[in-house]
Structures are given as C-alpha cells and as structure tokens.
C-alpha cells in the first residue's frame, strides 16, 4: 500500500492535540493538508506538523491525491462537510457527535452508502485498553450477566481546553454545539455502554441544566453544562449516567459494571485502571494504561484504526450506524 494524503477540516484543539500528531506519527500518512475558516490557524498547524494548508474547503474535495478527511469542524457543520467529503470520494473520520440530529446523521449515512467509502466516528473510549479488557471479561460471562451500571464523564469545561481558552467557545453556543455537555462528553459514554454491554439504551429519563457556566457576556449559557440520567437497555439492564462541565477538581471518567457474580470498576484508581471484585471477596487488579485526559494527551489509537480500515479495506471500529444509535439516545436525553 502506498502512503496516503489526509485533509483536516477545522484547526481547533482536537486537531492540534489528537488528529494532527497521530496522523504525523502514522507511517502510512505522508502529508497532512489543513483547512480552517481562520487561515492563520491552518497555517500555524501546517508549520507545526510539517504539512500544508489550503484556503478553501473545495481544495480538499478537488485534490485527487487526498484519500481521507478528518472532519474536526464544529457540530453543526458535520453533516455538510462529512457528506460532501464522502460524495467527493474521500474516506472520512468524523468527530463526535456525528451530527446535531438523527435526521442530519441519516443524510451522512446515505452519502456514505452511495460513495462506498469508509465512515468512522471518533468515539475514542472504545480504544482504551481498560475498556477493551472490560468488554472481554463481560463477553466471557466470568461474572455472569450484567445487571446494572453507572458511568460518569466530567471535567472543568471546554473553555479550559478549546482553542481560544475563553467563555466565547463554540461549545457554549446553541446554534453550533446544539447539545452542550451531552454531545461533548455524554455521547462518548453512551457509545461506551453500547460497546461494553453489546446492547443498546432504549429508555431514558433525564435532567439537564445550565447550572454554572456563563458566556463571554456573563449570561448563562444556552446549552446544558450538566446532565443526570437513568437509563434502560434493550436487554433490560438498568443504569445511571452523569455528564458535567462543572467538576472543578480532577476529571472523572469512571464506569462501574455490576454483574451477577461481581463488579468491574473502570478508571476509579489511577494505578489499576480496571479492578474486578468478585462476590466471594476476590480482588483482581489490572494495570493497563492511564485514561487520556485534557491534561494528559496520550495516543488515542483512533487515527491508526481509521488508516488501518482504509489500507486493509475493512469496516471501521466505530461505524456511522454505531454513531447514529448513540445519537438517538442523545436526542432522548435532550428532549
């Protein structure tokens, strides 16, 4: 397989800390072409990562040498950019959530089916060693069937992470982020529960609120900064989930799975990322790898998996269909 050229749309923090460095390290990628509405951003990243930049998105579509595109634009543009890239014969890795609504996500899936190209969505929690090991243990039924679960994802908020490090972040804007913390952090955990349990969340009761965050004018933000919900899956498992931009201490990215013969604790302990406690008192600790946080950027494995799917011509680890099933839950949470 020859090396491939990749285009990236949107040059914010997610590109700078995750997509660009991981493409730069991938042996099959020989050039990264950056596009952002703010040319100075794409120019800066092209310099930092030794790629080049273009001044219009059409240049990415029209370049026959570009095989794949990362869509790192803000949420409201995913259905436009990702669909257009697919229609132009590019494989696409789209940031999550796939779109701001299930309807718009379906448009992307339609474009993908017509194009025959790969579509992968960046639900990166599937790629951590602790989550993969937990899935293996759950599937083996060593602890019996899963009964209940609880999961959490919270940190101090996107204004500490976003490209402009301020309250003017697009994450706080209804017309751009659409779903607030639910689409930023929550959708990751919805996808994770689907993945771990090989199941789907069907019923949702949720509370959402803009409890603390304010925009650049000091007004409460238009999207939720906290979500707490009760969930039920197709197979009858019950669970709870909390997503927050107001955990003003260390980040919480924990999940607990309660089975018939014991429990799995994931990312509760910084040293032992997976702990199994059995009904009869046995404790098994797995030291696997620390979870990636906004302060601790480690390789996600997402880019390598995307490139691998293209080169090996196989189905991506997270498909558009997977992303739509998470988006359906997201819509129920926000109703």
TrEMBL record:
Domain Gfo/Idh/MocA-like oxidoreductase N-terminal: residue ranges: 4-123
InterPro entries linked: Gfo/Idh/MocA-like_OxRdtase_N (IPR000683), Gfo/Idh/MocA_Oxidoreductase (IPR052515), GFO_IDH_MocA-like_dom (IPR055170), NAD(P)-bd_dom_sf (IPR036291)
A UniProt-annotated Pfam family: GFO_IDH_MocA
Domain of life: Bacteria
Ranges for domain GFO/IDH/MocA-like oxidoreductase: 131-264
Protein known as: Gfo/Idh/MocA family oxidoreductase
Native species: Salinibacillus aidingensis
């Amino acid at each position: 397989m020859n090396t491939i050229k990749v285009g990236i749309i949107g040059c914010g923090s997610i590109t700078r800390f995750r997509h660009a460095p991981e493409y730069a390290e991938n042996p099959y990628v020989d050039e990264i072409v950056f596009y952002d509405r703010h040319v100075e951003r794409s120019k800066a990243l092209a310099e930092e990562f030794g790629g080049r930049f273009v001044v219009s998105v059409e240049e990415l579509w029209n370049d026959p040498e570009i095989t794949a595109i990362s869509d790192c634009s803000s949420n409201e543009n995913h259905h436009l950019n990702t669909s257009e890239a697919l229609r132009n014969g590019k494989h696409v890795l789209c940031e999550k959530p796939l779109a701001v609504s299930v309807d718009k996500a379906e448009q992307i899936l339609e474009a993908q089916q017509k194009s025959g190209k790969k579509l992968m969505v960046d639900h990166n929690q599937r790629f951590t060693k602790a989550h993969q090991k937990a899935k293996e243990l759950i599937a083996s039924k060593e602890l019996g069937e899963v009964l209940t679960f609880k999961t959490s994802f919270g940190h101090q908020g996107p204004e500490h992470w976003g490209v402009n490090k301020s309250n003017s972040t697009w994450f706080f804007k209804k017309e751009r982020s659409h779903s607030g913390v639910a689409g930023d952090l929550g959708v990751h955990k919805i996808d994770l529960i689907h993945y771990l349990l090989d199941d789907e969340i069907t019923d949702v009761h949720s509370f959402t609120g803009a409890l603390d965050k304010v925009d650049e004018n000091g007004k409460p933000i238009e999207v939720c900064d906290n979500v707490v919900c009760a969930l039920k899956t197709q197979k009858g498992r019950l669970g709870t989930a909390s997503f927050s931009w107001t955990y003003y201490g260390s980040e919480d990215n924990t999940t607990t799975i309660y089975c018939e013969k014991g429990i799995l604790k994931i990312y509760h302990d910084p040293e032992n990322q997976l702990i199994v406690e059995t009904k009869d008192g046995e404790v098994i600790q797995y030291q696997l790898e620390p979870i990636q946080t906004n302060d601790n950027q480690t390789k996600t494995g997402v880019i390598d998996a995307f490139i691998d799917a293209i080169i090996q011509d196989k189905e991506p680890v997270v498909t558009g269909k997977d992303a739509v099933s998470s988006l359906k839950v997201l819509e129920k949470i926000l109703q």
